[in-house]
Amino acid sequence: MSNMEANSNNSIQISKKRKMSGDTSTLHLDGIPLDTLSEVEKYLEPFRLSLEKLKEVSVRLKKDLIRGLGKHSHHRAAVKMLPTFVRATPDGTEKGDYLALDLGGTNFRVLYVRVVEEQQKVVKMDSKICSIPQEMMLGTGEQLFDHIAQCLGEFLESQDLKGQTLPLGFTFSFPCEQKEIDKSILIRWTKGFSCSGVEGQDVVKLLKEAIHRRGDYDIGSVAMVNDTVGTMMSCGYRDQSCEIGMIIGTGTNACYMEEIKNVKRVEGEDGRMCINTEWGGFGDDGSLKDILTEFDEVVDQTSINPGVHTFEKMISGMYLGEIVRLLLVKMAEDKLLFKGETSEALLTPGQFETKYISEIEEPDSGLENAQKILTALGLNWDPVDACVVRLVCDTISSRSARLCAAALATISNRIRVNRGLDHLKTTVGVDGTVYRKHPNSDKLSRKRSYVSAIQKHREV
């Protein structure tokens, strides 16, 4: 959970001007000779986004948000701004027994949730995590949903719930056009999935059909939500000022409460509706081309979905490790690292995992972790190499945090302007493996300086 203020007149003061300019912190510079550092900076400088550049990014995103909300411009918008039909955040009176199914990556989770007292004072929860094999991610939709139905059935049996018909909250973290709270059409797969027969189909219907094929249990009403919406709602139980949800994990996305009168594809003038921005597609129309590096372009070209989810590929856990790997290969080939030598592992796409970035950036054990990882990758390293690798990791994760900060500032400013306020205080619910597992998980929060400065530079 992260608190943030959008203020038209005042913003958090920034004392470290080097950070405001986009320069790296000195955290990982020790141990790198100045001449080596000078050469390394030539590779890393394109990843250092200045405050002015972040302001430009924010202005571009603002235009895309408006385009995505438009009735006649939505179809050509890179940021889809999908209505969720969620019209309010929690008020603290909800209670009951529920099932939940959370699918958003290589694992999915089934849960049994019991809210047994009002005001959410007691929430009991049991859960099970199920893996999705790579071949199933690339197989047929029927295979995928049969697997989900099987895991859900096994979980219900373990909880002695097969005889009950409970309502199900279905978190499906892929771009969907939501028609109703229980009808959602998959626009396209992301995050390495490409199951056939699912794009253009109602995923709630596919899930129900898989359950009916089994015939040994049933579910009640289904509420379909995006993971960002689930994050916002969950945070809202504890803090009712939460009106933004953000995910920084395998992918990245955000949602927020928009005025219904601005959602041109939904009838009505009064009240608010949660909008699933699908901001991972920001830049798919070329609007971010000026900040893409040659390494970003390779990541895109070699991905399972080239040309789409440009913003996500610069930020999320599925791609950060690969960006670092490509940088290390280039620097080694240019004889700046590892005595000019590479290894079979380093040359293999996907072998430098994003979790390595987290391990290498550990404040106390980072250098030792870097050395172990480089050894495991079969590289002939020296202490300077380990320090450089740590700096590379910090630079890539810092760019991710700064871009998130710019996007977050854009959304919070939109909420403030929508309501005609000079000052907005709101809470952001944040989740995702990158946010939770990175040792500097508050790196985004520490970019509040960027959020505030970008908010100060605004167009009403």
UniProtKB/TrEMBL annotation:
Its EC number is 2.7.1.-. Pathway: Carbohydrate metabolism; hexose metabolism; Carbohydrate degradation; glycolysis; D-glyceraldehyde 3-phosphate and glycerone phosphate from D-glucose: step 1/4. GO terms for biological process: glucose metabolic process; glycolytic process; intracellular glucose homeostasis. SUPFAM superfamilies: Actin-like ATPase domain (SSF53067). GO terms for cellular component: cytosol; mitochondrion. It catalyses: D-glucose + ATP = D-glucose 6-phosphate + ADP + H(+); a D-hexose + ATP = a D-hexose 6-phosphate + ADP + H(+). Residues 1-14 have a biased composition (Polar residues). Residues 1-20 are annotated as: Disordered. InterPro entries: ATPase_NBD, Hexokinase, Hexokinase_BS, Hexokinase_C, Hexokinase_N. It is an enzyme of class 2 (transferase). GO terms for molecular function: ATP binding; D-glucose binding; fructokinase activity; glucokinase activity. Coiled coil: none annotated. Residues 39-237 form the Hexokinase N-terminal domain. It comes from the Eukaryota. Residues 243-445 form the Hexokinase C-terminal domain. Keywords: ATP-binding, Glycolysis, Kinase, Nucleotide-binding, Transferase. Belongs to the hexokinase family. This is Phosphotransferase. It comes from Amphiprion ocellaris.
